[in-house]
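Box S1 | Example of a co-folding query
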Amino acid sequence: MSSTKYIFVTGGVSSSLGKGIISASLAKLLQARGYTTTIQKLDPYINVDPGTLNPYEHGECFVTDDGAETDLDLGHYERFLNVNTSQANNVTTGRIYKTVIEKERRGDYLGKTVQVIPHITDEIKHRVRQLGNTGQYQVVITEIGGTVGDIESLPYIEAVRQLKWEMPKDVLVIHLTLIPFLTAAGELKTKPTQHSVKMLQEFGITADVLVCRTEHPLNADIRRKLALFCNVESSAVIEAQDAKSIYEVPLLMEKEKLDQVVLQKLGLSLDKEVELSKWKEFVHKLYNPKKEVSIGLVGKYIELKDSYKSIAEGFIHAGVANDCKVNLQWIHSESLNEANVKEKLAGLSGILVAPGFGHRGIDGKIAAIRFARENNVPFFGICLGMQCAVIEFARNVLGLAGAHSTEMDAATPHPVIDLLEAQKKVTHKGGTMRLGAYPCVISEGSAAADIYKKSTIYERHRHRYEFNNEYLRDFEQKGMIATGINPEGGLVEIVEIKSHPFFVGVQFHPEYKSTVENPHPLFVGFVNAAIKVKSGVPAQKA
Ligand code: GLN
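Box S1 (continued) | Returned holo structure for glutamine
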């Protein structure tokens, strides 16, 4: 193949239409036809990356193997494609400007006036082409964050126009739009889409394909009308009806022939059939579970479920692997205390305590962990969840009153979770945590070894604080064992209580590596333990 093809996905009419899922679904279909495909997200905000954003803003911050803090859509890309993304797959306006301003300060522009066009747009184009230039991908799909017409996304739209002009055969634009249903009129309405396509045209871009989010099927009339008013062929009007699960969307897009339209327009061969048998089996199992189990997710950002996106998806993958529907119960950590925990967590077959930052909701998390530990309820702690399990054990088993993490209590008499020396000097917030994939060596005979069936694993991190090894002996003597250790620095990465049916805390974020094809073993093992507890299999004491 001579050159990489570039597909841009823009959004119109409304935000939250699911550009990420449509992009990931198209990528899945192209991958299923044998095309190497990657997806990139361009975010129009000024933050250099989403690492400094509160999860309430745009949901979870997804972390890649190479330690990039990225938009949560990259999680969807990885979960769908089962291929790792990297820093190059997520670029923000902040990062673009930072690069251009640094170049200007170095004198790279040789005295020229630095302007949005061409300097910012050149940098955007460079970031898009960079993925194609790796030679690894036949198709690069780039999702433009925001909605067409937003002031902040104008430079991106302009960069797309330029690229389409420069490579007319290799660039395709898909516009994702909404066809609202007016109940009073009993009709689907195309006008908002006409307007948003017109706006794209004002910026010099003609959409090649329209993907239309709709609650009702688009009839032939509507398709014809959209084609006529929006300058697209009627075969390129793709209906995207609401699906019960995001994992059904690639199958719906296949039925609508989105992949065929795209390949034809890009002049790519359609010879290879779509091979999605595993994916179909996954969706079939997802829609036909043999059993159900309730698991509590204890966290403080639960008002916005996207804050825990990868965890929720990890449970979907692990549920399917266990032929089981996982009913996630979202429990606000601030609503829990020692007095009500028994009543609030009653009926759960497993408790996950979520990652997080800061003091809010910590006491509720600790109360939930104590309840799980004392009542043999399977427990899974991730990052802050693991740190809270350590604090709870220190206080209630080791008798270390006031034990805490120095993140919450700098003056604690027992800093069982503490900053590494290297972190103490850090003052800048952005990109300075322990980030990305690190190795971890697992002890033989541990639950982790049984679950992973490997002695060395690589998991992704995003935290500053660590288990304080000065206390390790005391913990191990009382039954909380470090079963996963970073081989370079001796940092504790996994803790377990062996006398418990399932009590595992991990300093890393396994949820970032769970995909449809490779459900994460820790999630699979945890759901399996919850199923056993629910069906009354006695707790296995060590
Ligand atoms: N706040 C904790 C730390 O920085 C945990 C972070 C997390 O849960 N991702 O170490």
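The first strand starts at residue 5 and ends at 11. The chain has 19 helices and 23 strands.
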